[in-house]
Amino acid sequence: MDNNNVQRDGFTSKFGIIAAAAGSAIGLGNIWKFPYITGVYGGAAFILVYLICIAIIGLPVMLSEFLIGRRAQANAVGSFKKIAPGTPWYLAGWLGLAAAAVILSFYGVVAGWTLDYVFKAVTNQFSGMTPDELGGAFGGLITSPLRPILWQLVFMALTAGVVLGGIKDGIERYTKILMPLLLVIIVVLDIRAITLPGASEGIKFLFSPDFSKLSGAAVMSALGHAFFSLSLGMGTMITYGSYIGKKENLGTTALQVTIADTLIALLAGLAIFPAVFAFGIEPGAGPGLVFITLPNVFNMMPGGYIFAIMFFVLLAVAALTSSVSILEVVVAYFAEEKGISRKSATIWAATGIAVLGAFESLTYSVVDFTLPLYKGGEVLTLPFMDWMIELSDLMLPIGGLFISLFVGFKMLRSDVEDEVTNGGEVKVGYLGAFLFLAKFVAPVAIIIAFLNMLFGWL
Ligand code: PHE
Are the CB atoms for 221 and 453 separated by under 8 Å? Predict the structure, then answer.
């Protein structure tokens, strides 16, 4: 090896790539959010729209991110600078960095609630609580000033700990252990749920579509969620793509990650709804679905003590493998573009984002800080934490728009082809279709969805 040239850290195996990238995609989005928005928007019809969004927008944007990163061998900002020097395209990378800070700040808070619930499950605190008391316990947690912040700090420290190890010895190493664990837990929970008497109602809810519930808001949520769930639009997959070896097939990798993410979201639904219906509870429970409804379900379920622990550990593991990918976007930027050591970059970025998140958490309790948000043709006033969640819903599709336009119109077709075929080594039959989706379908769909989100046409 050339001594003057420091070898760039990267993934060392195919399984490591999938574990890390699927680990990023599979997170609170799949297990906490997907089931509750599916519940709110009426089940199977929503899932169908979501699958269409994934196929025609999610998949091409993911491949675009992978190929930008691997081509440039750089972080989210540096990649645009390298491929299109002297142009303002790097601003798309900046948008990604900002989105990373926004998302990780609230993500850490919700992940902190999850750790608190692992603790509550282990110490058997749900047992004997009525549904009302469980609702009160969740409300009490998120509106107490200190407790959520302490757990959020624990979670952010874990995240920083993994990222400090680097790519091969940190992110790849831990995701290779945590992702198989996650799969085993979710399959066990699925088997438990679908073998409950009365589970079939929940399965029907998930798989037989009722199109009358499919509003414009449902379509919007499906698109926004496709970006969030696949970790797209903010440079996560650009950053991870830059760590993928030159011999790996990017198209199949993107396909595998997309399928894994979708499968886990469906398996999460299958672990939750059959159990919810089996005990005669309403499915459209909103954000409280996993924190209020499920503990109630576990109380009634044979073996519920163990299954509750497994469920909240699952949620925490899913959150951790996602949060490391978000922190890595920021760390890679500071380490590569600003010449700061990875160690200091990790510590400073994690600390700064944790402080922001702690402040957000306080806006549920003692800090009265609300901001206005123009959405769906009206102005909403939201606590800062909710405002940040909404903001991320706007940032990711805009980021995705720039990324697909960049690959579709700015990069040379020959460079795109070179990258997806590994310099002609692998045959790809989809190049034309991919470019058509990246140039036209994804951008038009995002713009329509975005305007609709702002003005509430549908
Ligand atoms: N995909 C993650 C989830 O579903 C969240 C995430 C968003 C991670 C954006 C990275 C980037 O929970």
Answer: no
Cβ–Cβ < 8 Å for 72, 82: yes
| CA–centroid distance, residue 24 to ligand 1 (Å) | 6
Q: What confidence tens digit (pLDDT) does each residue in 72-105 have?
A: 999 999 999 999 999 999 999 999 999 999 999 9
pTM metric for this prediction = 0.95
Question: H or E stretch including 363?
Answer: none
- For ligand 1, the distance from its centroid to the CA atom of residue 117, given in whole angstroms, is 21
Q: Which residue has the tokens 């050591």?
A: 341
Residue 120 has, within 13 A of its CA and on its CB side, a CA count of 25
Q: Is 258 in the pocket of ligand 1 (CB under 6 A)?
A: no
* Ligand 1 neighbourhood includes 103 CB (under 6 angstroms): yes
**Which residues have C-beta within 8 Å of that of residue 401, sequence separation ≥ 6?**
442, 443, 446, 447, 450
Task: Dig out the tokens for 407 from the structure.
Answer: 């690959």
- Residue 114 Cβ inside 6 Å of ligand 1? The answer reads no
Render 171-212 in DSSP notation, one character per residue.
Answer: IIHHHHHHHHHHHHHHHHHHHHHHTSTTTHHHHHHHHS--GG
Q: How far apart are CA 66 and CA 252, in angstroms?
A: 11
Using an 8 Å Cβ cutoff, are 183 and 271 in contact?
no
Distance 414 CA to ligand 1 centre (A): 31
Place of tokens 């510590």: 347
Q: What average pLDDT score do residues 426-442 get?
A: 97
Residue 252 CB neighbour total at 10 angstroms: 12
pLDDT digits (tens, 9 = 90+) for 355-379: 999 999 999 999 999 999 887 778 9
Cα separation, 426 vs 399, whole angstroms: 29
Determine the average pLDDT of the residues in 45-72. Answer: 96
What letter represents residue 288's amino acid?
A: G
Q: How many residues does the chain have?
A: 458
Say how far apart CA 344 and CA 88 lie, in whole Å.
Answer: 28
pLDDT at 224 over 50: yes
3-class state of residue 381 by DSSP = strand
> At CA 39, angle to CA 35 and CA 43, rounded to 5?
100
Under DSSP, the state recorded for 160 is H
Residue 411, helix vs strand vs coil: coil
The Cβ of residue 274 has, within 10 Å, a number of other Cβ atoms equal to 24
5 has pLDDT over 80: no
